[in-house]
Design brief:
- About 15% of the residues lie in helices and about 35% in strands.
- The longest helix has 12 residues.
- The protein has one domain.
- The N and C termini lie far apart (about 50 Å).
- A hairpin with a 3-residue loop joins strand 3 and strand 4.
- The strands form two sheets. Strands 1-2 form a two-stranded antiparallel sheet. Strands 3-4 form a two-stranded antiparallel sheet.
- The chain contains two helices and four strands.
- The protein is globular and about 50 Å long.
- With about 90 residues, it is an alpha+beta fold.
Length: about 90
């Protein structure tokens, strides 16, 4: 169950889905704990994260396989997209 805003610097408690933004992270991992019985398959683990209304106006969430869920400023994310979309120097469009 969601407890509070996913932003580590925010302590707003989760009360309703009417405000803020809900994120779902689905990770696929092999079940390597048990002995192989011929039916091992990849299991999916879904986790839900929520940013409160105030935080969702300034931040988004990004999943990093090493660090987990990261809070990223929207301006930083938009800047990354713009730099990826610009043609490189010396290359004609």
């Amino acid at each position: 169950m969601l407890q509070k805003c996913a932003n580590p610097g925010c302590s707003v408690p989760f009360r309703s889905l009417r405000e803020g933004k809900l994120f779902v992270s689905e990770n696929v991992a092999n079940d390597m704990d048990g002995a192989f019985d011929g039916s091992r398959r990849k299991t999916r683990k879904r986790e839900h994260f929520w940013l409160c209304g105030a935080c969702s106006m300034h931040f988004t969430l990004h999943f990093d396989s090493t660090l987990g869920i990261l809070t990223i400023p929207l301006a930083e994310r938009a800047g990354l997209r713009l730099s990826e979309a610009r043609p490189k120097a010396g290359v004609s469009a």
